[in-house]
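Before the break, one more example. Copy the sequence into your notebook; we will annotate it together after we see the structure.
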Amino acid sequence: MGGSGGDEGSGGTRRRRKRGSRGGRQRGPKKPAGAVPIELIPGDDDELPELADLPEDAVLVGAQAPARARTPRGRRGRDEREKDEKDDEDDDDEDDEDDEDVAPRRSEPHKKRVILVNARDSEEKRVAVVEEGRIVDLQMTVKKHVSYVNDIYRGRVVNIESAIGAAFVDFGEGRNGFLHASDVLPSYGEPDWNLEKLLSTPVADGEGESESNSEGWTEDEGADASEDGQESLEDQALDPDHDHESGPEQHEHELGEAASDAGEEGEEQEEAESFQRPRRGGRRARPARHRVRLPIDTLLKKGQMVAVQITKDAIGDKGPTLTTYISIPGRYLVLMPSLERTGVSRKIDDERERRRLKRILQSLDIPEGMGVIVRTAGISRTKTEIKRDLDYLLLAWEDFSGKLRQGRNPAPLYQESDVAIRTMRDLFTPETESVIVDDPEVFQRMIEFTKRLMPEHIERVRLHEGERPLFHSHGVEQDFEKIFARRVELPSGGSIVIEQTEALVAIDVNSGRTREEGAEFEDIALKTNLEATPEIARQIRLRDLGGIIVLDYIDMMRVSSRKSVERATRDALKADRARAKIGRISQFGLLELTRQRLGPGLSKLVYDTCPRCRGSGRRRNASSRAQAIMRRLAAALALKGYTTVEVRTHPDAIEYLQKELHADMAKLQELSGREIKLLPVPEQVEDSVLHYQRADGREVRPGGRRRR
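Here is what the structure looks like once it is written out:
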């Protein structure tokens, strides 16, 4: 006890050992950071020259740089940072003011890009964008499939269904259109409303909104209307911020920008710039919207005239989808007479470019009550070019206004541009080297449109005068025919197989003959998947595949390999003008994505459902059909009122019955006492048809009733 106490007392001056340190080991003095001295091995000569002495403030590669002075915390620090940011923005604004009418410098095209317009054929008109001898984008119209998307009509309300909150409108094209309550301007519910007020009165687009903050709202250039007036599953997935309870704001995701735009539908939206307090993390919050969806019977009455724009063509038994929020697309702008707002597409993410374009919009003379949105094609455009496009849209609006005042019956007011104007408006870019057309009339219309909006590029539009067809002369006809193939071969020996079903599209990747000596299976799978990714994106774009798409990649075990393929898939789909949402590769090697439908799809344009297989691609073999006929005969021979049964079926089934089932048929005839005749009908759609006859040769129904 005393000894321990003495030790404790004597150790009072001793320093307590720190936790985690090892007793008995003395730490040497800390070595200064710097080069590590190298001792020469005796007998070896150092051939390297001596290095010069480094300055005192030099920092080794990989070493930490000298610590910077800490930014003062609190309000003072924030004020200084905001001041620096404001000074930077002011500097940019000063530069932008000088560059309003000077286009920013554009990078030189790295690929030869040519647009081929095959308009000579009367049945099909094709427009192909070709890069390095391959088709990378395609627009195709078929004579028998008339598209009304983006056309504007004067229509009459023929029926109102309050239960589903929609009205059916006769717009003069045979089938009634579907108009949901969320697509009806609130002004239609006013007691003294008439269509001519659409031309002279700014349209109110909701309650609780002031004009002062109109530029801070999100606008959408594309038509996103879905079947039955509701949002499709894929569009809900693609736009998580969509407000399903608002009326006009749903249209802000459904402003019709040319379905023939084949790609800018729904993809270009103005970024929301709220005046509310920013959220945590510095991102600005979306503005609060207080709008009430009015019942359809308070907005419209039966027999009332409406001006509607078609946002989606009829599909099957479903009629076209309509909206009263009208928009007219141009080369760089979208004119929206229904909404008094201006903005820039949110696809334009360069803040300096956005400020430049907004300043140009503010300097333009836009009529009161109209809204304008700058499309992504407006990037790097000068004020002169944008003003030229606005003048073109205002002329189209004047033509629309004149037709609206004339007549009171359903009639077209504005029809979407033909293949000539759509090509120059939607597909032409500054990187396009030439536009080659094979039809003189279409060529002349393209020249007139280009001279009005893009006179500096008029020399790029050329007429094809050769004897060979346009696609054959440029070597892309064979590439076009491959679009219809089920299997697409890859350069290294692999392939992709595309299967389109009612619910989804399945794309399978096969390694095939892809082999490398000494390579592991994981490396081969990764190589094939990465090679297939750009081709998959290209086929999706050319065939206009929409909805749910499942990619079945070759299984990969490494996480890094799966992430590489996911990243490659996202990069490959960036060039697609349709919106897409991409998932991750699952444990089964499947990657799911959803893609916005831009049109009916190539398969619906050029394919008919096979009546024999009913679209399945397969039909029953002769053995199975023969057995089905035997079962039908066994049931039919139990009926009364006839003496002979005639079996009409395909020749291969008859051959199987006569060779393989002859004894069974003879037994049936013997037991029933009736005659069985086999008649080959190659063109028959059904597998088998039975005809019953009496002894006098007259045909009767089973059971003895005579067939009329």
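The chain is about 30% helix and 20% strand. The mean pLDDT is 75. Try to locate both features in your own notes.
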